[in-house]
Design the sequence.
């Protein structure tokens, strides 16, 4: 079975460096590269049926927009050279969802950038990198 390396990608400069690092690592060990993007989505349990339907429509549109504007260009820019690349796009808490993606893919490694697009939130609530370093189901590489 081929090993998999999951890389968290949000389009930031740090994420681009992490993607490049993960791609080179995957090539070196003949692993599959899984490029993952997580859209944060807070669950509301007190919505009306109409609000739930509208929210689902917006969610679908956001997933399509993220695939077209973020993941597809990132993968297209990679020098794949025989590298197998998969993409995963999910909603949820970023660190928890990346852990689930790593578990679901039986990842040998999880690669992320040190700083993403949510600098203010990370200062208030803790960083994704710090959380993953503590709870990830596989080794985590944090790329500066």
Sequence:
């Amino acid at each position: 079975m081929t090993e998999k390396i999951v890389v968290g990608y949000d389009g930031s400069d740090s994420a681009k460096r992490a993607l490049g690092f993960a791609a080179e690592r995957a090539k070196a060990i003949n692993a599959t590269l899984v490029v993952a993007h997580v859209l944060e989505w807070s669950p509301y349990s007190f919505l009306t049926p109409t609000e739930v339907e509208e929210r689902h429509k917006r969610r679908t549109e956001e997933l399509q927009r993220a695939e077209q504007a973020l993941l597809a260009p990132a993968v297209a820019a990679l020098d794949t050279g025989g590298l197998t690349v998969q993409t995963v796009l999910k909603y949820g808490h970023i660190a928890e969802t990346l852990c689930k993606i790593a578990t679901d893919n039986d990842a040998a490694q999880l690669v992320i950038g040190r700083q993403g697009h949510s600098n203010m939130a990370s200062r208030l609530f803790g960083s994704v990198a710090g959380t993953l370093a503590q709870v990830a189901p596989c080794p985590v590489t944090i790329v500066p």
Summary: The mean pLDDT is 87. The first strand starts at residue 4 and ends at 8.
